[in-house]
Design brief:
Strand order of the largest sheet: 3-2-1-4-5-6-7-8
Shape: elongated
CATH topology of the largest domain: Rossmann fold
Distance between the termini: 34 Å
Order of helices and strands: EHEHEHEHEHEEHEHHHHHH
Strand content: 5-15%
Bound molecules: NADPH dihydro-nicotinamide-adenine-dinucleotide phosphate, (2S)-3,4-dihydro-2H-pyrrole-2-carboxylic acid
Radius of gyration: 21 Å
Number of domains: 2
Length: 268
């Protein structure tokens, strides 16, 4: 099975490294392209894989094509490869936000086998949580193949496409939101006199320990909030302050804004 990556930036590079590290794929099975043949060669040499001098040639050689370009570049790429995909059995994996299956098929034809995958940045350490939505023409074996591929890189969930945008917000985008939370706590400690590096190290340990505890003990958020909040103590003062300042509504707004943008992009 040959896997072709159109676009080899942050996400594709992490996927390629993860697939090779996990031994799911050998370097000989991977081909990539970037925006120019020179850049493709340099990246391929660095990763120990092959490159194609153009996207059409890459598609001709691949069984699975992973589209790893930014959404703004995707229409040109889809137009470029459409004739190679039409009437083929090739599987096209799109990791782009804002391109639903219908929109991708409007370029590649209604019969094209499209799977939308939304990984997240944690794929760089094979800790992605990836959402998968398939067009309705996949066989069970084909679905299994794509799922197995992304299982090498973390946890996967198969989703109805209507839920894909919500998944994108809480899984694809949330590393940025989580980093904002960590930054906020860190700088609040700096304001109170701790050096930045020390404050960030403490915050990261506290956050990662909290995640492990919640998973290990299968605690709900409110179980933990109640356990930490001593009656008449310090935590409940902070919890009340966050509630008063609209912490939860802010997150609702952020997720809604993310979903709205994805839906608008799919309509463009
Ligand atoms: N970043 C994230 O956290 C996540 C991103 N995504 C999605 O992943 C996709 C890629 O994002 P990311 O990896 O961050 O982006 P990058 O900008 O890091 O990578 C994009 C790649 O596309 C290449 N490229 C541009 N034009 C072409 C072309 N015509 N033919 C072939 N390759 C081309 C670029 O090459 P060059 O360097 O030569 O310009 C570059 O290697 C996006 O669609 C995004 O929505 C999904 C989940 C999470
Ligand atoms: O910001 C974006 O559009 C992409 C999709 C998920 C994470 N990054």
């Amino acid at each position: 099975m040959q896997i072709g990556f159109i676009g080899a930036g942050n996400m594709s590079t992490a996927i390629i490294k993860g697939l090779i590290d996990s031994r799911f794929t050998s370097p000989e099975q991977v081909t990539l392209t970037k925006s120019t043949a020179e850049r493709s060669k340099a990246q391929a040499d660095q990763l120990g894989v092959a490159f194609s001098s153009n996207n059409t040639e890459l598609v001709q050689q691949a069984d699975i094509i992973i589209l790893g370009v930014k959404p703004q570049k995707l229409p040109d790429v889809l137009n470029e490869i459409a004739s190679e995909i039409k009437d083929s059995k090739k599987i096209v994996v799109s990791i782009a936000a804002g391109f639903n299956i219908t929109k991708i098929q409007s370029f590649l034809g209604d019969e094209a086998k499209i799977v939308r995958v939304m990984p997240n940045m944690n794929i760089a350490i094979r800790r992605s949580v990836s959402g998968l939505s398939f067009s309705d023409n996949f066989s069970v074996e084909e679905k299994q193949l794509v799922s197995e591929l992304f299982e090498q890189l973390g946890v996967t969930y198969e989703l109805a496409e209507k839920d894909f945008v919500t998944f994108t917000a809480i899984a694809g985008c949330s590393p940025a939101f989580t980093a904002m939370y960590i930054d906020g706590l860190t700088r609040a400690a700096v304001k109170n006199g701790l050096p930045y590096e020390l404050a960030q190290a403490i915050t990261l340990e506290a956050v990662s320990g909290t995640l492990e505890l919640m998973k290990d003990k299968t605690l709900s958020s409110w179980d933990l909030i109640n356990q930490v909040s001593s009656p008449g103590g310090t935590t409940i003062e902070g919890v009340a302050s966050l509630e008063n300042d609209g912490f939860i509504p802010s997150l609702f707004h952020a997720v809604d804004a993310t979903i709205k943008k994805d839906q608008e992009m799919s309509k463009e």
